[in-house]
Amino acid sequence: MTVSATARPEHGFRLSQLIYDTRYRSTTIQVVAMFAFMLAVGWVVNNAIQNLEALGKSFSFSFLFSTSGYDVNQRLLEYSSQSTHGRAAILGILNTLVLALVGCITATILGVLAGVARLSKNWIVARLMTVYVEGFRNVPVLLWIIVITAMVNESMPSPRDYRGVETGAFVFTNRGFYFPEALFSHGLGDLDLGLFKVSLDLMAIIAVLAAGIYAAKRIGRAADVKQAETGVRPRVFWYRVAAIFLPTIALLLFLGFHIGYPELAGFNFKGGTFLRDSFIGLWLALSLYTGAFIAENVRAGIQAVSKGQTEAAYALGLRPSRTMKLVILPQAMRVIVPPLISQYLNLTKNTSLAIAVGYMDATGTLGGITLNQTGREMETLLLLMGFYLIISLSISFVMNVYNERMKLRER
Amino acid sequence: MRTTYAIGAITIAGFAAGVASAATLDDVKSAGELKCGVSTGLAGFSSPDADGKWQGFDVEFCRAVAAAVLGDPDKVKFVPTTGKTRFTALASGEVDVLARNTTWTFSRDTDLGFEFVGVNYYDGQGFMVPASLGVTSAKELSGATVCIQTGTTTELNLADYFRANGMEYEPVPIETNAEAQQKYLSEACDAYTTDRSGLAATRATFETPSDHVLLPEIISKEPLGPLVRHGDNEWGDIVRWTLNALISAEELGVTKANAEEMAASSENPEIRRLLGVEGDLGAMIGLDPKWALWAIQANGNYGELFNKNIGPDSPIGLDRGLNALWTDGGILYSPPFR
């Protein structure tokens, strides 16, 4: 019974066992592979250090704390040419994130609409969507970015052309679009957190709105309880509306809310919310481009759902739009979400093309001007790669959590 | 055991890669061509003509260096670089010399690890605006949108100038001169700022140059010159003295046309040393005795290069100004050839 155990050699461990004994072999191979990998990494790092030394360059991140000396046009934080390179990098990172966020949202909306429409029975709609999808998928995104920004630059009037013209609340110029902005005549000011400032007005509005929504939910739940007890559902709709809106409106009145309009002053419009031409070009191009890919994902997802599901839904008397919304899309999501993750990643990484139209994203500030003014290619690019890595992994993580929840539950 | 050999070989290769960058002259000679970094397109300084042949002031300096080193002005490979990529191209050895309207600054000379071999154009930063704007001074530009090439000294000067004068502006960063031109002409920016030579060159390519004015303010010193990597002093000497040879040639009256004849008949000892008929200046920098003669014969002396490409007779129409010889009231001055 224990033949193999007794047949085992009596003497102790020999070195050759590391190679010939199957118990150890796989571990040996992995250890050797690990050492080889570390040596390779070590050589690359050593080579880089030696070459930097040969060029008379040191490796240091201290430049991040020195004065940058340049200006950036889109600022979500306070920044001037006297700020540090590090702050300019953060500024660029925020600009990247804003672009990626709005881009992902619009790309998803566009993609879902186009994907559904491409399967439409309406011949024209379906063909138009084919043209859109194929047109955007098969032309490099950089060209779309440049073309769309150039269209804004070339087709819109310059601010100068508005001199002596009644402009109104919305102004479209070749430097960007101006919209009315929310202003508070006796606002609460800003909370200075050292690195950046937080608008207390915005915080207060969000807090009151959240409290209102919570209250509305409680009223709804109370109604549910009453309905369960008595069978009659009390009419609470208006109470819920009031719970959300009345406190918010009261707060807005208290803060002295009014709308600010853009006005031509000097060379440019002042006031209002400003969407820069480069931002519009990038936003549109990235959304349309990624939207075309998402449309294909959506189409694939819908076609992956068995035809029987549609027929069953029709047999129950559901209209096509409700069938799509309630039966097909929820099932299609399982197929759509995994490739959707990589589309979000693509869009985020493609924001690095922003410098082509002069949008100051992280590649523009840290990997562009800072790199140039300080000459620290190695350090800035390492930082930049780290940044994109972190962003991509975060998006992946969040979307994978979502995917876990959408997955078919097998019992 | 085999692993040890491999690691040894890799280590040696690593060291070799570290020191390989030292002897640029040998690299250029063995490659049989000079790799010269130029701008991606600035009329008069460096831009490809209708036949795709590179033309311009900086381009012809590259040709002069190639002629001095290899004896043939056409043995140049031009590498177009943007304001952003130029230093990386030079540092990594992608180019042997950078002749690209690059301002000689302290940090570039020291911290970036480059060596400026001299100044081939004394410039200053200016502003160009459409004449219809009615602006006559840079001091009136508060609130303006300004197009600016990123990664340049002009970008920093612009920030300093507006801050010092308590004015605001909106920078529109762009990568190349061509993009700046498109943005400026479509009025996406009110003003375009760069070196005045660059502004003049850009304006010369407009359909109606007279619709655009250069504002009188010069807000910075921009000594533009060729540069090489720090640490290879022999190569630096060669490029430096090629530039000096072109300047001295103008001073001594040696031109493309008469260089051969001067070499044969001139009695002036400095001309004789310069053209390699007396002394052994060529050998001192590891080149043929006729190196300077070839460099001058490539496209002419400094004055000829200037007049042909960017001078008053060219479409760019720049005055000699500071760039005149010291004997003519300018500040162009070559150390003596002896």
From TrEMBL, chain A:
Domain ABC transmembrane type-1: 93-399
UniProt-recorded Gene Ontology molecular function terms: transmembrane transporter activity
Keywords: Amino-acid transport, Cell membrane, Membrane, Transmembrane, Transmembrane helix, Transport
Gene Ontology annotations for the cellular component aspect, listed alphabetically: ATP-binding cassette (ABC) transporter complex
Subcellular location: Cell inner membrane; Cell membrane
Record GO biological process: amino acid transport
Recorded topology in the membrane: Multi-pass membrane protein
Extent of the signal sequence: none
Primary localization: membrane
Xref: InterPro entries: AA_ABC_transptr_permease_3TM, ArtM/GltK/GlnP/TcyL/YhdX-like, MetI-like, MetI-like_sf
Origin superkingdom: Bacteria
Annotated transmembrane regions: 24-45, 88-114, 135-152, 194-216, 237-259, 279-298, 381-402
PROSITE patterns tied to this protein: ABC_TM1
Keyword Ribosomal protein among UniProt keywords: no
Annotated family: Belongs to the binding-protein-dependent transport system permease family. HisMQ subfamily.
Family annotation (PANTHER family): AMINO-ACID ABC TRANSPORTER PERMEASE PROTEIN YHDX-RELATED, MEMBRANE COMPONENT OF AMINO ACID ABC TRANSPORTER
NCBIfam families: HEQRo_perm_3TM (TIGR01726)
Stated name of the protein: ABC transporter permease subunit
Source organism: Pikeienuella piscinae
TrEMBL record, chain B:
Keywords: Signal, Transport
SUPFAM superfamilies xrefs: Periplasmic binding protein-like II
InterPro entries xrefs: Bact_solute-bind_prot3, SBP_3_CS, Solute-binding_3/MltF_N
Pfam families according to UniProt: SBP_bac_3 (PF00497)
Biological-process GO terms, alphabetical: amino acid transport
Protein name per Swiss-Prot or TrEMBL: Amino acid ABC transporter substrate-binding protein
Domain Solute-binding protein family 3/N-terminal, first and last residues per copy: 33-262
Entries under PROSITE patterns matching the protein: SBP_BACTERIAL_3 (PS01039)
Assigned protein family: Belongs to the bacterial solute-binding protein 3 family.
Signal sequence annotation: 1-22
